[in-house]
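Hi L.,

You mentioned the student needs an example of a multi-chain input paired with its predicted structure. This one should do, with 278 residues in total across all chains.
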Amino acid sequence: MPKDRLSDADYEALSNLRYTLRRFMDFSTSAAHQEGLPAQQHQALLAIRGYRGEEAMTVGKLADQLLIAPHSATELVGRLVAAGYVTRQVDPADRRRQTLALTDKAHAILERLTAIHLTEIREMAPRLIDILRALDVTR
Amino acid sequence: MPKDRLSDADYEALSNLRYTLRRFMDFSTSAAHQEGLPAQQHQALLAIRGYRGEEAMTVGKLADQLLIAPHSATELVGRLVAAGYVTRQVDPADRRRQTLALTDKAHAILERLTAIHLTEIREMAPRLIDILRALDVTR
DNA sequence: GCAAATACATCGTAATACGACATAAATCAA
DNA sequence: TTGATTTATGTCGTATTACGATGTATTTGC
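Structure written out for the whole complex:
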């Protein structure tokens, strides 16, 4: 029971959803760049900071969170360490693992970025919910 | 009145939001690839199809929709035309403009992709709305 | 009818995720 | 315990794609 046929309104609503998401992503990328961070590095910092409150993030778990291959996470972390945003140290419990932590510099930047993101999201949310409703209506 | 301070829960909720969005994007990218389409080409087809129901899309308006530079849209359209998904012809009303239209092949693929996207969105929506609520609660 | 603006196009470049491959540590079976 | 397997991370070359710089054609404003 997928449903009848797709209407022009379906395509339009889906297109609008993607446009809204793109604008959010674009806002986010710009905000990160203004803080001197590539978007993916910002996401890495957020994933580390937001990981179940405050558990120990590792390279592999970061890869899971960001939906990238483990070795891509390795490279990303390498850039973050080089830029002074993250420290990496061997996990004593399993010496194959590298635990990651944010530096003060990263905490400061991430706080600013998170604040403006919350503001932006609160502005975007009603529009987003309207679009989701439009898509569900056709159900 | 931005508000007090950011809590662990704020970071976690924002991180969860991004993770949910990434999974949707990842789903979408994979679905497009299974149809032989790079994600950005899929978005272009959707933007052309969904543009206010059925108006004439142009290279420039596509750039606006995709939030890319006009010349990037040119290149993207070039790839779409080469792959047989889009036809491009001079707009008689303004011969600087190129109007874009989908081929039957593109319509067929886009219909399949849109159908499964709607299904996926309906599955994701409740989770998404919960997260948005969590972010607003802290308001 | 000419300057400015608009729309699209071309080419070389840079960023980054990936594939292929490699290393080290932990686990498990005999 | 040792050796095979799995897990976690790392290295290097490559490919994709958006961009900057720049160029051409068309339209518009005065």
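You could point out the following to them. Residues 104-137 of chain B form the longest helix (34 residues). Chain B touches chain A through 47 residues (CB under 8 Å).

Best wishes,
N.
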